[in-house]
Amino acid sequence: TPTLNIIGGGMAGSEAAWQAAQMGVNVVIHEMRPKVETFAHRTGDLAEMVCSNSFRSDDSEQNAVGLLHWEMRAAGGIIMEMADKHALPAGGALAVDRDPFAQSVTAKLKSHPNISVSYEPVETLPTDGTWIIATGPLTSPGLAKAIAAETGQDALAFFDAIAPIIYFDTINMEKAWFQSRYDKGETEEERTAYLNCPMDKPTYEAFIDALLAAEKTEFKPGETAGYFDGCLPIEVMAERGRETLRFGPMKPVGLTNPHQPDIKAHAIVQLRRDNALGTLFNIVGFQTKMKYGAQKQVLRMIPGLEEAQFARLGGIHRNTFINSPTLLDAQIRLKSQPHLRFAGQITGVEGYVESAAMGLLAGRFAAAELLGQSIQPPPPETAMGALVTHITGGADAKTFQPMNVNFGLFPPVDAKGGRRNRATRYKLYTDRAKQAWSQWLDHARLDAA
Ligand code: FAD
User: Fold this and answer.
1) Could you tell me whether strands 54-57 and 93-96 are parallel, antiparallel, or unpaired per DSSP bridges?
2) Ligand 1, closest atom to CA 121?
3) For the chain, which terminal residue's Cβ has fewer other Cβ atoms within 10 angstroms, N or C?
4) Residue of the nearest CA to atom 4 in ligand 1?
5) CA 362/CA 431 separation, integer angstroms
């Protein structure tokens, strides 16, 4: 039986291994943890979620990432199966109990007869065999250097920030309350998945002042150039305008304070449950690069969080990604070394779900190749196809930045000037995608048979 080697057992590597093993090839996952640690991972588990515990919207009719969930479930993906198994109530989002999730992905992969795991780092580019490189945003420096040398460019890197996590029992519930925005959710648990902290105008103004004045981690010149817009630190949002946060993560809409039902809050900070036990809550959208001491002081200005204890403070992270539009072919192979495929965040997609999705494709492509077959890439009408088409050619190579899945990547459903409302349009996108994805899966099955 032919063998596929995968470097990195994260979101992408785990899904790639599962897909390839299910198609009948042998898989060896090479994972450096726990031997070599990263600053963000805490365990030696495969598929560890390093920051937020959310897979974002699970709405497969109106949301592109929800559609990606749907496509991965239809393809028998291990990441979605285990995310569903360990889902936490979160309104319309798919939040996950991170530790049991990663543990069950690890156990299921290791018990597959075709999969083995080698707990060693790989620090050079393999010269023969069939490989997938899925080493993620925190690719080890040695391997990153080897990739940079082969691709003839400096490894691109930028910084994102991590949102702080707070112990529930240190939150003052005489000020905070449970409620999902617009009471969204099917069950009572979902309708109360968020915890809210209200601010009046003077508190908000003082908070913004403190945020602007707080000591932040210093960057070297040029390091901040690549901030990803979807993950801006709160202090950077505040720098863009005093009202920016009130229209972003602190917007005071769709929520009613039961402690003061007659007073409309000027701003509201939301926290989301971070584990099944309900003992940890993360502050939604509050990525930050404030220094630890300053962070505690500023965040304790939030009503309800005066006595907050932090399970994890916000921090800064590096990202590593290649210029996929110039370097990769449509099968996500390195053009200069086609025995090497890339998958996950390192290809320039952004997010757990998108990373796992690229792993799913890479695993299937590689397995088919090893079995003497080939699979056409999925059409761009699907979420999978839209993403992979974007990174392997759709994106402008000169301005290439990490990308979340979104309907902007899909071929338009409306001719120019079409005037259907958004909900109707999104439903057309998702209906069309589901049909195309089901057809692609059927063909892939035929090809593989
Ligand atoms: P990973 O899941 O990181 O997997 C890569 C694996 O490769 C790791 O297990 C690593 O140990 C291993 N590895 C690295 N180098 C080597 C080597 N040389 N040899 C062997 N093994 C190696 N996305 C979200 O959707 N939500 C978030 O909240 C979020 N927060 C993030 C916070 C931080 C600090 C970081 C760094 C990223 C965050 N991301 C987030 C982005 C990204 O989606 C996740 O990092 C995701 O896990 C990427 O999946 P991946 O499989 O590409 O990489």
Assistant:
1) antiparallel
2) 19
3) C
4) 10
5) 25
Dihedral pair phi/psi, residue 114, rounded to 5°: -95, -5
Radius of gyration (C-alpha) of the chain in whole angstroms: 22
Q: How many CB atoms lie under 10 A from the CB of residue 244? A: 17
Report d(CA 221, CA 389) in Å as an integer.
33
Choice from 132, 135, 341 to test ligand 1 binding pocket (greatest atom count within 8 A of CB): 135
- Strands 26-30, 115-118: parallel, antiparallel or unpaired by DSSP? parallel
Pocket lining: 214 vs ligand 1, CB cutoff 6 Å = no
The verdict on the CB of residue 343 being under 6 Å from ligand 1 is: no
Round to whole Å and give the CA distance between 159 and 289: 10
9 CB within 6 A, ligand 1: yes
Q: Where are the alpha helices (DSSP H) in 40-89?
A: 64-74, 78-85
Judge whether 78 and 171 are in contact, CB under 8 Å. no
State which ligand 1 atom lies nearest to the alpha carbon of 48: 2
Task: Please state the pTM of the whole predicted model.
Answer: 0.76
pLDDT of res. 223: 47
- pLDDT given for residue 446 in this prediction: 58
Instruction: Supply the pLDDT for residue 228.
Output: 52
CA-CA distance, 305 to 328, in Å (whole number)? 47
CA–centroid distance, 255 to ligand 1, in Å, is 34
In angstroms, the CA 6 to CA 8 distance is 6
Measured from the CB, is residue 138 less than 6 Å from ligand 1? yes
Whole-number pLDDT of residue 51: 80
Give the per-residue pLDDT at 430: 98
pLDDT value of position 222: 44
- What stretches of 269-351 show up as alpha helix (H) in DSSP? 292-299, 324-327
Whether 5 is in the pocket of ligand 1, judged by its Cβ within 6 Å, is: no
Q: Which ranges of the chain have pLDDT less than 50?
A: 155, 222-223, 225-226, 449
Q: Give the separation between CA 376 and CA 278, rounded to whole angstroms.
A: 44
Both tokens of 341, joined, read 């495929």
For ligand 1, say whether the CB of 355 is within 6 Å of any of its atoms.
yes
- CA 86 to ligand 1 center in whole angstroms: 20
Whole-number Å distance, alpha carbon 132 to ligand 1 midpoint, is: 15
Neighbours of 31 (CB within 10 A): 26
First to last CA, the chain: 16
